[in-house]
């Protein structure tokens, strides 16, 4: 399966290159580069070893950072050009937006807390994100209620907890279980708060 | 004293230091100090022996000058 | 023999730093320039106008601080790329330098510069495909990513090397891709712009060394 | 380092500077003779350097210090280290290519830090002409594939057994020779210092700083000529290499005297064409040999 995956990924990459070349709109070109990133991740994943799994994460982070940076450049350029960016005004008035978010987010948060670690953080964060997005679509302002900076600091402290757990692993191998719990707790709080911040970003 | 003279003094100090360190150290590091020694001394000595400028507006050079 | 003799190897777990003559010189150059960039105030740029006198451009402080920070990140990433002994790490450093390059230029509020940096950013995203793809293929073929190991293996890696070189060319913006990058250099603020050029040149030389070694 | 070694290094530096500047003077003389002018004396370059070194100066207020002052110093640092690494230690070729690449930083930095529009144009053109480096890397790779080493002393000793490399690698030697041509003054590839942008990156560097840059240029010319002779002809002794240096200077000045300055994109396209030819040569050697 390795060769098939790699060949198909390359074909997808080349096709998306063609698409980018044809594309005149800058925003569409930027979105199409994301397709390229996906084929890149497929190539790494095709190797299928532990090392490859470890390599996917930095590759993903780097590509996301690059796309974010370029999107920022695009926004600044449009501002410099003097164009007014039109707001996203569609009336979403669905009943499910009022009833579901609390229930689903609580379930996801509890499930994430049981999982713990990186995955648990991601699950909790998806619950929080769902809650925040639903509230924002309905027009409620969450940023005033929750302090952005406070959550940032909280996330930083949790990160240092993770580091302590990590160091303790090397320094006191006897008490590995304690430090494992330390690291798991730190990681779950860090990831969920960091990702949850996305929901409050302007 | 303008910034060029200040840089000249710094260059002289770096040049002297590397001249001393050049003889203390051995191998590649002494070559490194030699490489630092020559241009710094050249600039440091040069900036103090060039004649004082007679231009009225200092810094505003004639060519396309601001 | 490529790099003129090894002085020593510092292993941090799986991250290995090698101090050969080549890498030490590159490291020293990158660090020196980073310090210099920190010290230097940017020049005041004279822009030739179509009509009338030349215009003297001042750069506000907040824009300057951002750019200096990005330039320092760029310098440190370059210095790290000089020393690392892992193909994947090197690719990560390359992309980090690419992001830092965009960051240095994107604080300039001028349309042509932003346009150029957008085009360069697209190129650098596209170039990550051959870069990371090549390192993944090398991993699949040989089972290792360490340059020191790959040096002894003697496998035929021609296709991967070509892909890796292509990725490097896109990421640093050399010959076929430089059109957007040269436009970026017209932004005011000399020391920071210089850092873009320095990092790309040093990384090209280092890539050639890696491609000859493995 | 003891005093003997110190005096050896000083002698080597002065020798490189004198020979380089005399060869550049000779270059100018031959070009003048080709264009049916009497031309300046051969020691003119040396006199220029001394004149600039003792001239009054004032620094432009647009300049970004200390980068503005550091660049000429860096020029000498780069070429002195190239001189020591190449001639004295006969170390790795790749390091010297890396130092050659730093020359571009000097050109770019000189142009940018002065704040002059002409200097900036010169700097941007130096970025454009970075295409000249690709054949260089291809040359390095080709030499490595043939000799299995990049240490200059190994390359020289390889040639003592197998004969000069210029017969085995004519295309690479040609590409390296084009590099020498582009480094010489008044060359068709000299878009960085073209007279259409006054004097390119050197526009705002005058007086003492120009003197320092001239010293660096003279050493650079010597080192590059020595490198060509050592890699492709196999002669590493600096005294035995002297007649070949004069011969190569003669050829370069004939080429420079007879050709006009190319437009920037023509120059870059020509260099990329050469790069493609050398890369094809490299690919051929990798696959079939």
What does this structure look like?
The complex is a heterotetramer of chains A (202), B (66), C (214) and D (289). In chain A, α1 (2-22) packs antiparallel against α2 (26-47), α2 packs antiparallel against α3 (50-81) and α4 (96-115) runs antiparallel to α5. By secondary structure, chain A is mainly α. Chain A folds into two domains: 2-81; 96-200, no CATH class. Chain A has seven helices and no strands. Chain C has one domain. Chain C is built from eight helices and four strands, in the order ββαββααααααα. In chain C, the strands form two sheets. A two-stranded antiparallel ribbon of chain C has the order 1-2. Chain C has a two-stranded antiparallel ribbon with strand order 3-4. In chain C, a hairpin with a 2-residue loop joins β1 and β2. In chain C, α1 packs antiparallel against α2, α1 (21-39) runs antiparallel to α8 and α4 crosses α7. The model of chain C has no long low-confidence stretch (mean pLDDT 80). The radius of gyration of chain D is 19 Å and the shape is globular. Chain D has helices at residues 3-34, 44-53, 67-88, 93-114, 117-128, 133-147, 152-162, 165-168, 170-183, 208-233, 242-258, 264-288. Chain D starts with a helix and ends with a helix. At the B-D interface, α1 and α2 of B face α1, α3 and α10 of D.
Which structural category do the helix and sheet elements of chain C fall into? mainly alpha
N-end to C-end Cα span of chain D: 45 Å
Sheet having the most strands of chain D: none
How far apart are the first and last residues' alpha carbons of chain C, in Å? 12 Å
**Tally of individual domains of chain D:** 1
Spans of at least 5 consecutive residues with low confidence of chain D: none
- Strand percentage of chain D lies at under 5%
Secondary-structure-based class of chain D equals mainly alpha
Helix % of chain D is over 70%
Brief overview:
The complex is a heterotetramer of chains A (202), B (66), C (214) and D (289). Chain B is mainly alpha-helical.
Q: What labels describe this entry?
A:
heterotetramer; B: about 70 residues; mainly alpha; 2 helices; about 0% strand; D: about 290 residues; 12 helices
List the helices and strands and how they pair.
The complex is a heterotetramer of chains A (202), B (66), C (214) and D (289).
Chain A: H1 2-22, H2 26-47, H3 50-81, H4 96-115, H5 117-137, H6 148-171, H7 176-197
Chain B: H1 3-24, H2 28-49
Chain D: H1 3-34, H2 44-53, H3 67-88, H4 93-114, H5 117-128, H6 133-147, H7 152-162, H8 165-168, H9 170-183, H10 208-233, H11 242-258, H12 264-288
Helix pairs in contact in D: 1-10, 1-11, 2-10, 3-4, 3-10, 4-5, 4-6, 6-9, 6-12, 7-10, 9-10
């Amino acid at each position: 399966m390795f060769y098939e995956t790699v060949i198909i990924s390359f074909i997808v990459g080349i096709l998306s290159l063609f698409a980018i070349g044809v594309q005149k709109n800058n925003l569409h070109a930027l979105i199409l580069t994301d397709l390229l990133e996906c084929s890149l991740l497929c190539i790494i994943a095709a190797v299928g070893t532990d090392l490859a799994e470890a390599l996917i994460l930095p590759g993903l982070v780097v590509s996301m950072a690059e796309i974010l940076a370029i999107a920022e450049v695009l926004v600044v350029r449009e501002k410099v050009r003097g164009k007014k960016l039109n707001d996203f005004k569609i009336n979403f008035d669905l009943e499910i937006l009022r009833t579901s978010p609390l229930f689903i987010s609580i379930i996801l948060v509890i499930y994430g807390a049981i999982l713990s670690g990186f995955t648990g953080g991601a699950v909790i964060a998806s619950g929080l994100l769902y809650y925040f997005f639903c509230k924002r679509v309905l027009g409620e302002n969450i940023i005033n209620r929750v302090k952005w900076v406070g959550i940032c600091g909280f996330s930083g402290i949790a990160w240092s907890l993770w580091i302590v757990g990590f160091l303790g692993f090397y320094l006191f191998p006897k008490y590995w279980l304690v430090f494992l719990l330390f690291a798991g707790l730190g990681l779950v709080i860090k990831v969920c708060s960091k990702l949850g911040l996305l929901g409050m970003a302007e | 004293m303008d910034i060029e003279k200040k840089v000249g003094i710094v260059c002289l100090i770096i040049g002297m230091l590397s001249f001393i360190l050049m003889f203390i150290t051995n191998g590649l590091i002494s070559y490194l100090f030699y490489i630092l020694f020559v241009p710094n001394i050249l600039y440091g000595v040069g900036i103090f022996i060039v004649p004082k400028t007679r231009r009225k507006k200092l810094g505003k050079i004639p060519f396309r000058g601001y | 023999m490529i790099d003129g003799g090894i002085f020593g190897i510092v292993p941090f777990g799986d991250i290995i730093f090698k101090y050969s003559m080549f890498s030490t010189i590159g490291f020293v150059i990158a660090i020196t320039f980073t310090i210099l960039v920190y010290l230097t105030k940017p020049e005041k740029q004279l822009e030739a106008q179509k009509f009338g006198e030349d215009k003297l451009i001042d750069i506000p402080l907040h824009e300057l601080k951002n750019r200096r920070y990005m330039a320092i990140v760029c310098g440190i990433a370059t210095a790290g790329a000089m020393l690392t002994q892992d193909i994947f790490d090197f690719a990560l450093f390359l992309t980090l330098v690419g992001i830092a390059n965009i960051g240095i230029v994107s604080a300039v509020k001028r349309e042509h510069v932003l346009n150029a940096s957008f085009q360069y950013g697209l190129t650098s995203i596209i170039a990550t495909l051959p870069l990371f793809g090549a390192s993944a293929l090398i991993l699949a073929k040989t089972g290792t990513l360490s340059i020191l190991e790959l040096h002894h293996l003697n496998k035929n890696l021609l296709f991967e090397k070509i892909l890796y070189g292509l990725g490097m060319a896109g990421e640093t913006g050399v010959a076929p891709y430089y059109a957007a990058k040269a436009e970026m250099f017209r932004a005011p603020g000399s020391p920071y712009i210089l850092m873009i050029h320095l990092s790309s040149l040093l990384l090209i030389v280092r890539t050639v060394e890696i491609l000859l070694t493995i | 380092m003891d005093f003997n070694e110190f005096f050896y290094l000083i002698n080597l530096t002065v020798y490189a500077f004198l020979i380089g500047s005399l060869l550049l003077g000779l270059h100018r003389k031959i070009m003048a003779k080709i264009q049916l002018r009497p031309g300046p004396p051969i020691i003119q370059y040396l006199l220029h350097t001394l004149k600039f070194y003792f001239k009054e100066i004032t620094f432009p207020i647009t300049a970004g210090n200390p980068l503005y002052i550091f660049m000429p110093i860096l020029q000498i640092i780069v070429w002195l280290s190239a001189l020591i690494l190449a001639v004295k230690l006969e170390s790795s070729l790749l390091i010297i290519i890396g130092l050659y690449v730093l020359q571009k930083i000097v050109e770019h930095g000189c142009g940018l830090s002065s704040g002059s529009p002409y200097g900036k144009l010169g700097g941007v053109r130096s970025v454009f002409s970075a295409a000249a480096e690709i054949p260089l890397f291809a040359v390095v790779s080709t030499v490595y594939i043939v000799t299995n080493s990049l240490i200059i002393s190994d390359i020289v000793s390889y040639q003592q057994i197998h004969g000069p490399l210029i017969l085995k690698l004519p295309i690479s030697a040609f590409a390296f020779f084009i590099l020498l041509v582009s480094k010489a003054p008044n060359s068709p590839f000299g878009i960085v210092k073209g007279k259409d942008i006054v004097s390119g990156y050197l526009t705002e560097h005058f007086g003492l700083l120009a003197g320092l840059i001239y010293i660096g240029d003279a050493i650079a010319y010597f080192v590059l000529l020595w490198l060509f002779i050592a890699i492709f002809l196999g002669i590493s002794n600096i005294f035995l290499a002297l007649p070949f240096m004069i011969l190569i200077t003669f050829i370069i000045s004939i080429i420079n005297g007879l050709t006009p300055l190319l437009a920037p994109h023509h120059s870059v396209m020509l260099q990329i064409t050469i790069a493609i030819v050398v890369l094809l040569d490299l690919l051929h050697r990798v696959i079939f040999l």
